[in-house]
Amino acid sequence: xxxxxxxxxxxxxxxxxxxxxxxxxxxxxxxxxxxxxxxxxxxxxxxxxxxxxxxxxxxxxxxxxxxxxxxxxxxxxxxxxxxxxxxxxxxxxxxxxxxxxxxxxxxxxxxxxxxxxxxxxxxxxxxxxxxxxxx
Length: 135
Prior knowledge:
The chain is of the alpha+beta class. It has helices spanning 2-21, 27-31; strands at residues 45-49, 52-53, 61-66, 79-83, 88-89, 94-95, 101-107, 112-120, 124-125, 130-134. The longest helix has 20 residues, at 2-21.
């Protein structure tokens, strides 16, 4: 019985050392979390609602910006700014929350189409654009 117990523990130790410490396919490689902090210009998203607003200076469209990494993970604490040739944003910029979401609001007293361009961190321009029509 003692010999079987020693063989069992020896086998267990060998198994654990191979699984946790062995080679390229080790368990450590799969279980170690990798941080993903760089925003992606192509994976980040921009939504606006409503897409048509009265051009009376009071009507507002809410612009939701979701900053994502190349792997689609949300990125928090990113400074986001938006520009448009028509309309004015109530916020000069916004910061993403834990879900990578920032909210901005646009209104206009001039009719036209606001083609919204969003940048992250002042250097990265998102590829997705959205338009809000003021009439």
